[in-house]
Fold these 3 entries.
Entry 1:
Amino acid sequence: MTLDMAANMGLIAKECFSNAVRVTDRFHVQKLALEALQEIRIKYRWQVIDIENDAIEKAKSTKTKFEPKILSNGDTIKQLLARSRYILYKNKSKWTENQTERARFLFELYPDIEKAYQLCQDLRNVFENTTDKIYGLGKLARWHEKVAQAEFKSFNTISRSIQNHYQTILNYFDNRSTNASAESFNAKIKAIRSQFRGVKNIEFFLFRLTKIYA
């Protein structure tokens, strides 16, 4: 059974399917790391907004015109941090030319974001390039060491969560099982429900689903 890291789901699986091998879905693990990365980006963005607001107020008091620093790609620092959101979800190999340039500025100005981005990519590589549970255990241990050295509070929290679910995470390497198909199906159901602005007749709704997707 492929699950997320929710305690209630793990308990249900343990009680109802006691002989099943439980697997923590790799995409939920990676999602936690990506959220930690975005948290660091957002923290810097708020700092830049505060600095810019202070500069605007100072310019008003001195009756001068405020002009934010503009990078060679046309972004201000605030825009750079805002527009880098989706770049950080991607692997470098999938960046466009403009995204590569934006990432270069971002990493030069904020080395912590680059370090956190690399931690996310290292975790992804563990899942993508490992086929043996023993090697997976060793690679995850080395990843934990990198997290400890980086001293990011949010990543330390994720590291502890992974350690608490070590066994089920390592079970992924047996058959590389994910619940991607179930998540995709769930997204389709939500899309249909949203299209019709809710469901009144549940039986008819389930009937439609069976006709469309059975």
Entry 2:
Amino acid sequence: MKSKTFQLDLSPFRFQIITDIDLVLDNAKRIYQQKFIDGDLSCHYIDYQLSVMKSGGVRSFYKPQARFFCDTREPFKPLNHNQGFAMLEWGMNWTVAAHELQHVIIHSAVLEKNGKAIIFPAPPGSGKSTLTAYLANNGWRLLSDEMALIIPFSDIVVPFVRPICLKNQSIDIAKTWFPSGVFSSVAKDTHKGDVIHLAPKPEHFEQAGIQAKIVGVVFPRFQAGTALEIYQLDMMEAFTKLAENAFNFTAIGKDGFDTVTQLIEEIAKFEICYSQLDEVVDFLLEEII
């Protein structure tokens, strides 16, 4: 395949991407739907220039690999060619986290109901993305699966609507729950295991310009067979946990510190351990929304 150029119009950012890997192009078309723009549109301002390209030389024939570039910088080691689309997704996350200074960025899912947003920071393996997929397909609006973009000195979060990254056992669960969902191909044997991406609903893409007020932060942890456990965090606990999940907290300095401090003074703060998603939904609606 000759290299192809396309753009992803993902408010508040526009990416221009070059690839010579069919799998990357095909998945981008499928997942990003109306936000996929074919070709090089020089009339539009581009925030980030990215590429996912095949390795050259012998590697192009024997165990072909994919390489990710942000401009000319290559932040990751090459991955298996079949992991190219997942690499693009991780690369977009890295690009925004490494360069964006206009927002305080928290590594978290963000979902909205009735104009009120809850952020869900969580480490890998906590079940965050499975919970996100469930909420986003059951009456909640997806703002992000990966990062909360918070306007400094406010409680307002800016949507950055992207697909939901599901791993291992969650893949079959999601396909059972959402048989009409739009899924990427499976990236096998990544450092996170098997990975797939679930496209946002079209209306969530269309509502990407609608900001929301943060009313709560919930740190979720899935544990099979357990009844719902709820722990209300004090301000110091919540601040510490949010700071641990902040991508650019150090880079923006005092503005980040003041924003997070102000935020946790105003919002509900919880840590939960759960196994039943309907119990989580009831808790969110009764105690936060």
Entry 3:
Amino acid sequence: MGGIDELADDRALLGRTSTAERVADILRTRIAEGFFPPGTRLSEDSIGGALGVSRNTLREAFRLLTHERLLVHELNRGVFVRVLAVEDVADLYRTRRLVECAVVRGLEEPPFALEGLVEAVREGEEAAGAADWKGVSTANIHFHRELVALAGSARTDELMRGVLAELRLAFHTVDDPRGLHEPYLVRKREILDALRAGDRTTAERLLARYLDDSRARIVEVYARAVEEPDQPRG
């Protein structure tokens, strides 16, 4: 499996109390970052060796991520990173709209703690300037994580971490990441500016339109991508 040595760098994150939950968190992050693209078969030997964990621990982590709909187990074939159906993508966007707009609507009085959003917008714009569209995609995920983090709720953070990781599976399947992400860079800055001004109403309106337009775009593009005959099965 290409680049497995890079995964070994995550071993330090396990600390002395190596658990399946910690392994699952590492793999979830790596899947969201595109390290393991949709359709990839996950090797127990390679991943277990890189992280220095037992086969049983790794299998439990796989089970957790299968429950989160990030992995699928195929009898006599192994464990694979899931390939989403078009209906899954649309449903993920519905969930995002409900949660993200509710977070903005429920913010306390300004000023808001926007440092994370500022950094995510800067990260995306710099990546776009370098034509690093994978980096733009990563910055996009960071933006929405930071937006939800404004609620100050660990449960909401956990929910959206799973939703965004699952949605990233669709992003990795699309062969035009620039067309997918570039139009929304300016719109993220507009949402940030509204929040800086303390205008929750405008920020929520901009966010709702952003998510509706993004859903229509990704569903259209993704539907074409999964119709390709060489698309891996999940």
